[in-house]
Specification:
By secondary structure, the protein is mainly α. The chain has one domain (12-146): Four Helix Bundle (Hemerythrin (Met), subunit A) (Up-down Bundle), CATH 1.20.120.550. It is built from seven helices and no strands. The chain starts with 6 loop residues before the first helix and ends with a helix.
Length: 155
């Protein structure tokens, strides 16, 4: 006989949120790996000890190609957007929304962030990146509004 599952694991919306959140976290790891690979290829290291290990202090420098995928840009943008989504999505999941509607919220955000990252790293023509950003914000605003409406009686 299987052990009983925790209540959250029975929540279809929360499980969908967990799936898409995990995809987004994995995407963030991929960006970090790409950053490391570009650093190695360009021999542009952020720390002197890394430069010394890979050829000398002359490689302790910035490079425009590396900067494009550093946390200050693509990765930082992810943190500024994905972390709020993680909070909003988790709370939204507790409001018992319709599973199909919730899934659409999570899917749109996830796809928008993936397209945003691809547009950033491949330097796609404008307005690809800004459209992807804007589309991904729509479900976040929707979830935030629904959370506020649900919690107004408790303020």
């Amino acid at each position: 006989r299987a052990a009983p599952s925790p209540k959250m694991m029975e929540n279809k919306v929360f499980m969908s949120f967990t799936f898409y959140s995990t995809i987004l976290i994995l995407k963030m790891y991929v960006v970090a790996i790409i950053t490391g690979q570009v650093r190695l290829r360009k021999k542009a290291f952020a720390n002197p000890e890394d430069a010394l290990r890979n050829g000398g202090l002359q490689y302790y420098r910035e490079d425009p190609d590396v900067e494009r995928c550093l946390p200050r840009r693509a990765h930082r943008n992810d943190m500024e957007n994905i972390f709020p989504f993680l909070f909003l999505g988790a709370i939204y999941s507790l409001l018992d929304p319709t599973p199909a509607v919730a899934r659409i919220h999570f899917f749109i955000f996830c796809v928008g962030r993936i397209v945003h990252t691809v547009a950033y790293l491949l330097q796609l023509k404008a307005p690809t990146r800004s459209v992807a950003y804007s589309v991904a914000q729509l479900p976040c605003f929707s979830m935030a509004l629904q959370i506020l409406l649900a919690t107004i009686p408790y303020w």
